[in-house]
Amino acid sequence: MADNSLSSARPLGVLGSKLLERRDLVGPRDRTDFFKFSLKRSSDVNFQLSNLQANADLLLLNRSGKAIARSQKGGKQAEQITRQLQSGTYYVQVSGRGSKSTRYKLAGSTTAGGGGSGGSGGNGTRSNPFDLGTLNGGSVARSRDTAGTSDAENKFYKFRLGQISDLSIALSQVSGGGTMRLYNDTNRNGVLDFSESTIDSGDGSVSSNRPISAVFPSTETYFLQVVRDFSASTMQYDITFNTTQVPGNIPTDPGSEPTTAFNLGSLSKGGRLEAKDYVGRVDENDLYRFTLNETGRVTFGKADVAGDINTNVTIYQDKNNNNILDSGESIGSLIGANGSVDLQAGVYYVLANQSNVSNTAYSLSISS
Ligand SMILES: [Ca+2]
Ligand SMILES: [Ca+2]
Ligand SMILES: [Ca+2]
Ligand SMILES: [Ca+2]
């Protein structure tokens, strides 16, 4: 095949905001197709690989052939790469992975990089999303929004949560089909950057809807992106943001080290301390500190109040006083809802932790 190496890559020319489409085939007898394109200015570039009948992957390469982005989903799932790129020459690589060949449709376009200055109400673009304000329980809905396949045609929404909340985002009355992607503003610059990664997703089509449904904290600014499925000719929908508040009782989010732990104060005989907060995808660790006034039996309890189950709770003592919880300084982990242990008077730390895919509003109690 003529397009099996970088030097013989098929030219796409200068990539611009007009959607470019190419259709071809990869498989056991023709593993790889290369395409070459150039950018006149710094741009947000979006490539999609769809209409697959077998597994194929999509890679974005710099001018020396080094991969700078990959989309490698399994099976017939469509691939997508979105990246902010400087002006210059780049390559796109389409690779067949399985024993069967597949036709594909490759589509690419740009949106001008840099973005606008924000604005209040928003117009639904990445740089100026529809601003829903702070969600404080109940529903906020919009009707008959539309979304396209390129980043410039996607719809973006921005919101905050007034409390830790059980959040549900659902599409309805869908014509065509598309995907929802939820992000948080990881670098806290008020803008959804291309470097920020998805924290949850859902979708909707004429025949089925899969809402986003998870617990998230009030510490974040959230962005939702709606992307039209490449296989759909339209994407029009109603969208509902529903929140049920699950308030915590900790004024600032606990960090993950002794120096940033939240101090619950001191515990005397007959006393009880309680912490309610969130751990999960956007905040994996909450570390608490307490001082036990008298040597005796201490009971720890945990409950998953909303969201995914199985928050891990581990008790530590900083035995060598180096402000680090070293291995060997764990006193034990809470298995089940309650557990008791005899402790000397002193300072202790309790860690609430979730893996980065689960989201939980938890409650933690310490009593003597
Ligand atoms: Ca950001
Ligand atoms: Ca937290
Ligand atoms: Ca935390
Ligand atoms: Ca230590």
Automatic annotation (TrEMBL):
- Region annotation (Disordered) ranges: 102-147
Matching Pfam families, A to Z? PPC (PF04151)
Q: Composition bias, kind Gly residues: at what positions?
A: 111-124
Q: Domain Peptidase C-terminal archaeal/bacterial: where?
A: 32-96
The transmembrane segments are: none
Q: What is this protein called?
A: PPC domain-containing protein
Organism encoding this protein: Drouetiella hepatica Uher 2000/2452
